[in-house]
């Protein structure tokens, strides 16, 4: 019998003898390997300088600045750059080519606006100048029509930042997510949570 | 040409390893038959391959979908709306999506474990309102199989005594989460029945399987088998009998027949070597999914059966339905700033709303059930996307960061899942001009909603908005218009397509008899959603399982009597 048979065809008697149901196979190695590789990469990257795969040096500096305007450090937790959000973004753009145009185009739009208003790139603007621009695009319902492209882009950039931050270890702990663990039994939510909604569990 | 010996003839060849095929393999091996199971996808075992405890930061994609996993990279199910190299086509003007799972266990790796019995009315709706058709069997005939299924697979629920939503052999349901009780309060106020969900997730140990540990990630596959999948609840015991051979990457082209007009095996493409092979069998059971089984039959053309096998009535591919669906969600101010706690529970809602109204007082036939969603779930890709929809309408900085914390878990939504009535304009056929990468002619779909479905979905939208308003919600979406088909989900997108190889009481209007046995070929059976005469306002899986169990026991009994 060919090795092809042993890899892809499982016969009951064989499995019963071996005391296992399905025999090891490439898919399993791939799933585990995908995670292990990423963990190794994260470990290796800790403390080391990250080299962007997609963003140019200028874009990289712009993104690092912008994400911390979206999610800054506060009393409870660190900033978006502390949570490696720019690294997450660059990695996603590397994995998903279809995301690049809109994301990078928005960065260029930001610089264009800064040049029109202040004669320099976003990263060379003063904090107050940067905020003046962000104020114009961060609230889409009241954004002026000529700001529509920027407001639309900022919606997705803000979402992207939030995903990067709140799916990081730092962000998940900030949120206080307590699930995805083993509970010996399910007893419902704490009494306080029902009480404050005026319901009984 | 492979060498074949007498030993290579199987008693039964089953095509497809999902709910229907898994159950057939379980029942038939237990009855002593030598069975071969062909699966078009590859191996995947939830006990070893699941991402159950993978944290959001553990992968660079943070759970985002991939080409092979459209519901997210951690989702158990390999497959999707598009399968590389395996296209389908749609007739001009038709919008239809066809989900295919390509893996051992099929779509049981995908579904939400919502395990609802069809009720007495669901089998005899034509008698009640003149629409669609009656099944050739009744609820009373199905009840013993549902009971056995409940005991074999395990299901939780509550005894309610609702006439068309029959109770089962239930394990205790999990206590509702706090936000779910807020939904129930609104439902009670508007006389909408709201009861514990009925999910095939164990809350007590059963048959060597432990109870749920409430990690909330059922969709990733359960490493301990506390929920149902065909792979480990049905196929593993079948394997232990020593009677089952499982062959993966085997894409079936057709069922072959002998000079006597009986099925004698199947021809399949071995995807790895890209060669055509065959299996000889005394009985063939198709469980490849409703549309895929119809496709195999239509492709099984011979001199004796020029229109395809089991198709002298011409109904193969006809009377396909999908569940109707639409969703509305909203932001609930009273859920802002919830004290943190673990509200994961089981991987699904703990409450749902079965159909509660009398159609005689409504402008549409047939009902729907309501599924609910909300809570402080595990963060993943797309976390709180569209925050500009919440007060104050966007922003950035420290206040925005705090908004994410405050609003997390403050949205609740409703999804309606209703019954479509089979119609003449919704069907599939072979596309004469297109083949897939294996050279097999593909399906072309035709789809049309009628007012029955559209008015039902309108009612869903109105109901959801009423309930959300009752909960004090801010709903950003507006009521869809008639021109927008009231927001009805695209045909096929609810992934409940059934029919296509329907059973019936007459060989001129159905492909299968009351035992899911082909009228034209007595050793050919269908054991997936294909035999369904009609939908119901319930998810189909529990009935696929019970019906496959019934069909398989019929086959076993016929074999014992020497009739097959």
Quick recap of the structure?
The complex is a heterodimer of chains A (201) and B (564). With 201 residues, chain A is mainly α. Chain A contains ten helices and one strand, in the order αβααααααααα.
Q: Catalogue the unreliable spans of chain A.
A: 1-7, 13-30
Assembly type of the shown chains?
heterodimer
Number of domains of chain A: 2
State the order of secondary-structure elements of chain A, H for helix, E for strand. HEHHHHHHHHH
* Apparent shape of chain B: globular
The rounded Rg of chain B comes to 23 Å
**First CA to last CA of chain B: what distance?**
28 Å
Q: Tell me the major beta sheet of chain B.
A: 8 strands, mixed
Kindly state the number of beta strands of chain A.
1
Task: Report mean pLDDT of chain A, rounded to a whole number.
Answer: 85
At the first level of CATH, the class of the largest domain in chain B is Alpha Beta
Biggest sheet of chain A, in brief? Answer: none
Percentage of residues in strands of chain B: 15-25%
Q: What is the overall silhouette of chain A?
A: globular
* Terminus-to-terminus distance of chain A: 60 Å
The total strand number of chain B stands at 18
- The CATH architecture of the largest domain in chain B can be given as 3-Layer(bba) Sandwich
Describe this structure in words.
The complex is a heterodimer of chains A (201) and B (564). Chain A is built from 10 helices and 1 strand; from the N terminus they run H-E-H-H-H-H-H-H-H-H-H. Chain A has 2 domains: 1-48, no CATH class; 51-174, no CATH class. Chain A has helices at residues 3-8, 12-18, 26-45, 57-70, 85-95, 100-118, 127-137, 148-166, 169-175, 191-195, and one strand at 9-11. Chain A has 201 residues and is an all-alpha fold. Chain A is globular and about 60 Å long. The model of chain A is unreliable at 1-7 and 13-30 (pLDDT under 50). Chain B is of the alpha/beta class. Chain B has 2 domains: 1-154 and 219-314 and 428-449 and 499-564, 3-Layer(bba) Sandwich (FAD/NAD(P)-binding domain), CATH 3.50.50.60; 157-196 and 324-418 and 460-487. Chain B contains 11 helices and 18 strands. Chain B has helices at residues 19-30, 46-49, 120-123, 125-129, 139-153, 178-189, 230-240, 290-299, 398-407, 451-470, 541-560, and strands at 9-15, 35-38, 79-80, 89-90, 100-101, 195-196, 244-247, 250-257, 263-270, 275-286, 324-331, 351-352, 368-374, 411-418, 427-435, 441-446, 517-518, 521-526. In chain B, strands 1, 2, 7, 8, 9, 10, 17 and 18 form an 8-stranded mixed β-sheet that branches. A 3-stranded mixed β-sheet of chain B has the order 4-16-15, with helices on one face. In chain B, strands 11-14-13 form a 3-stranded antiparallel β-sheet. In chain B, helix 1 runs parallel beside helix 7 and helix 5 (139-153) crosses helix 11 (541-560). Chain B is globular and about 75 Å long. Chains A and B meet through strand 1, helix 2, helix 3, helix 5 and helix 8 of A and helix 2, helix 6, helix 7, strand 7 and helix 9 of B. Strand 1 of chain A pairs antiparallel with strand 7 of chain B.
């Amino acid at each position: 019998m060919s090795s092809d048979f042993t890899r892809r065809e499982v016969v009951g008697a064989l499995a019963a003898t071996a005391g296992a149901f399905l025999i090891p196979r490439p898919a399993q190695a791939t799933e585990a390997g995908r995670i292990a590789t990423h963990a190794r990469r994260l470990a290796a990257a800790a403390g080391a300088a990250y080299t962007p795969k997609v963003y140019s040096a200028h874009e990289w500096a712009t993104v690092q600045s912008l994400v911390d305007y979206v999610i800054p450090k506060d009393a409870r937790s660190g900033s978006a750059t502390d949570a490696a959000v720019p690294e997450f973004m660059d990695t996603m753009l590397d994995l998903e080519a279809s995301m690049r145009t809109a994301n990078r185009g928005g960065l260029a739009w930001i610089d264009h606006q800064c040049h029109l208003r202040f004669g320099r790139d976003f990263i060379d603007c003063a904090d107050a100048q940067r905020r003046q621009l962000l104020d114009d695009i961060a609230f889409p319902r009241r954004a002026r029509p000529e700001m529509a492209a920027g407001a639309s882009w900022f919606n997705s950039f803000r979402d992207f930042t939030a995903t990067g931050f709140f799916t990081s270890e730092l962000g998940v702990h900030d949120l206080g997510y307590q699930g995805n663990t083993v509970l010996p039994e399910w007893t419902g939510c704490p009494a306080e949570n029902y009480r404050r909604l005026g319901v009984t569990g | 040409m492979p060498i074949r010996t007498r030993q290579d003839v199987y008693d039964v060849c089953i095509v497809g390893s999902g709910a229907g095929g898994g159950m057939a393999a379980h029942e038939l091996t237990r009855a002593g038959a030598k069975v071969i199971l062909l699966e078009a996808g590859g191996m995947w075992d939830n006990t070893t391959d699941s991402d159950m405890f993978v944290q959001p930061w553990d992968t660079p994609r943070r759970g985002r979908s991939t080409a092979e996993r459209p519901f997210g990279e951690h989702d158990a199910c390999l497959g999707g709306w598009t399968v590389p190299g395996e296209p389908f086509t749609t007739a001009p003007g038709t919008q239809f999506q066809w989900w295919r799972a390509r893996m051992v266990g099929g779509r049981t790796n995908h579904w939400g474990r919502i395990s609802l019995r069809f009720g007495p009315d669901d089998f005899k709706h034509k008698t009640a309102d003149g629409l669609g058709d009656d099944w050739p069997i009744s609820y009373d005939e199905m009840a013993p199989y549902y009971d056995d299924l409940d005991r074999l697979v395990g299901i939780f629920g509550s005894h309610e005594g609702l006439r068309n939503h029959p109770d089962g052999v239930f394990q205790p349901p999990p206590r509702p989460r706090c936000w779910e009780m807020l939904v129930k309060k609104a439902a009670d106020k508007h006389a909408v029945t709201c009861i514990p969900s009925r999910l095939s997730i164990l809350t007590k140990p059963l048959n060597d399987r432990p109870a749920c540990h409430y990690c909330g990630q059922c969709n990733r596959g359960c490493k301990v088998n506390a929920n149902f999948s065909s792979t480990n609840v049905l196929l593993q015991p079948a394997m232990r009998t020593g009677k089952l051979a499982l062959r993966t990457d085997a894409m079936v082209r057709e069922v072959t027949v002998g000079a006597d007009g009986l099925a004698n095996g199947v021809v399949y493409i071995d995807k790895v070597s890209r060669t055509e092979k065959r299996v000889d069998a005394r009985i063939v059971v198709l469980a490849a999914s409703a549309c895929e089984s119809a496709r195999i039959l239509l492709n099984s053309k011979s001199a004796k059966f020029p229109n395809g096998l089991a198709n002298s009535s011409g109904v193969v591919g006809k009377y396909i339905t999908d569940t109707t669906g639409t969703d509305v969600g909203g932001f609930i101010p009273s859920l802002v700033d919830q004290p943190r706690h673990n509200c994961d529970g089981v991987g699904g809602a703990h409450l749902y709303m079965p159909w509660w109204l009398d159609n005689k007082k409504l402008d549409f036939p047939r009902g729907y059930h309501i599924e609910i969603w909300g809570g402080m779930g595990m963060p993943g890709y797309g976390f709180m996307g569209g925050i500009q929809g919440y007060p104050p309408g966007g922003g950035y900085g420290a206040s925005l960061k705090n908004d994410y914390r405050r609003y997390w878990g403050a949205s609740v939504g409703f999804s309606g899942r209703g019954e479509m009535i089979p119609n003449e304009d919704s069907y599939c056929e072979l596309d004469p001009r297109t083949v897939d990468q294996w050279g097999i002619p593909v399906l072309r779909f035709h789809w049309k909603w009628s007012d029955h479905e559209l008015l039902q979905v309108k009612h869903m939208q109105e109901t959801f908005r009423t309930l959300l308003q009752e909960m004090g919600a801010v709903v950003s979406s507006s009521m869809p218009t008639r021109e927008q088909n009231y927001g009805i989900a695209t045909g096929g997108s609810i992934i409940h397509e059934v029919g296509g190889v329907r059973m019936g009481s007459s060989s001129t209007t159905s492909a299968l008899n009351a035992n899911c046995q082909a009228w034209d070929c007595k050793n050919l059976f269908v054991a997936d959603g294909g035999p369904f005469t009609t939908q119901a306002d319930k998810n189909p899986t529990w009935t696929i399982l019970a019906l496959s169990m019934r069909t398989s026991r019929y086959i076993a009994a016929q074999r014992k009597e020497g009739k097959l």
